[in-house]
Amino acid sequence: MHAKIITLPGDGIGPDIIAEAVRVLEHVAHRYGHTFAFEEALIGGCAIDATGNPLPDESLAACASADAVLLGAVGGPKWSATESVRPEQGLMGLRKHFDLFANLRPVKAYPVLAEFAPLRADLLNGVDILFVRELTSGAYFGERHEQGDGDRAWDTMFYTVEQVERVARVAFEAARARRRKLTSVDKANVLASMRLWRRVVIDVSKDYPDVELEHVLVDAAAMYLMRSPARFDVMLAENVFGDILSDEASVIAGSLGMLPSASLNASTFGVYEPIHGSAPDIAGKGIANPIATILSAALLLRHSLKLETEARAIEAAVDTALAEGARTADISPDPAAALSTTAFTDRILAHVS
Questions:
Q1: Which terminus of the chain has a lower count of CB atoms within 10 Å, N or C?
Q2: What's the CA gap between 265 and 135, in Å, rounded?
């Protein structure tokens, strides 16, 4: 296979972790006889510094020419005082421009990392959750940040039937391929937009009689994630709720550095990125955990390039490296014995077969 992949390293540790994910993808390409062409572009704070725009037209054009995009992280305190132009606007613009309406965030517990999770080890048994987050609507994209006399501001949570239906179908299809259980998260007891959400999800469920559907209010879902996370298979949530809940669930894996994501539209194009931030305090030190970005590269192979065998090979290599005791500083009981970002990737590469 020949494929073009745009990398958007972004800010902070973004360049560090993207470099390692590219190494893994190049190794996979060589191992399985593919050709991956990589091209780098700007996004986020570094793009603001260079062009004044967090998502330059040149970056959008590059992404439009690619099969998939691999993104690092954006933002940092350097740009926190700026209100009119912020690094995060680049990420939001990318999602909106390419209509990346479905965000997949897999969360699973690693038994060997149980000591780093704040939950009891017995609660982590069998935890394997896929969050499907609606990504281009809701309060993040509704009428927002409007201020009257300086004492008022508001954000509008807005959804249409079509917006809910298409992401619900992604979630039902995912559940059908897994354990056939879908939990739809809403706040239908209070919000009109969430009553529409629940009604549409119920309508879509009629096409998936083999998938068990339950509705859970978002506050209850937050509690159940800490009390009994193994009860969940696929969790479908609107934009804001999905953002918060999937970050909450990151403690199950023991570190934000473990969790990948895929942002997809109706085609095979997607943007793949770790869910963690730019961690500017450790940027360039060679100690960042590359797992989330490497697993995001595996999702890229699976969803955009349809290379399931190759994706599984990366995921298995990560599991094996962890089982053998390979650790970066954030998941090591002995920071002095932790591996560097590059050394950890070397351990993963040794097991890609």
A1: C
A2: 10
Does 108 participate in catalysis according to the annotation?
no
Domain boundary among 247, 273, 300: 247
The 10s digit of each residue's pLDDT in 66-77 is: 999 999 999 999
The strand pairing partners of 210, in sequence order, are none
Neighbours of 279 (CB within 10 A): 22
Helix (H, G, I), strand (E, B) or coil at 278: coil
Is 319 an annotated catalytic residue? Answer: no
Any catalytic annotation for residue 346? no
Other C-beta atoms lying within 10 Å of the C-beta of residue 335:
11
151 DSSP 8-state letter: S
d(Cα 98, Cα 49) in Å, to the nearest integer? 24
Residue 243 among the catalytic residues: yes
Q: What is the pLDDT of residues 170-190, one digit of tens each?
A: 999 999 999 999 999 999 999
Q: Are residues 265 and 298 in the same domain?
A: yes
Mean pLDDT in residue range 155-171: 97
Residues near 337 by beta carbon (within 8 Å), at least 6 away in sequence: 327
247 is catalytic: yes
Catalytic residue among 110, 159, 187, 330: 187
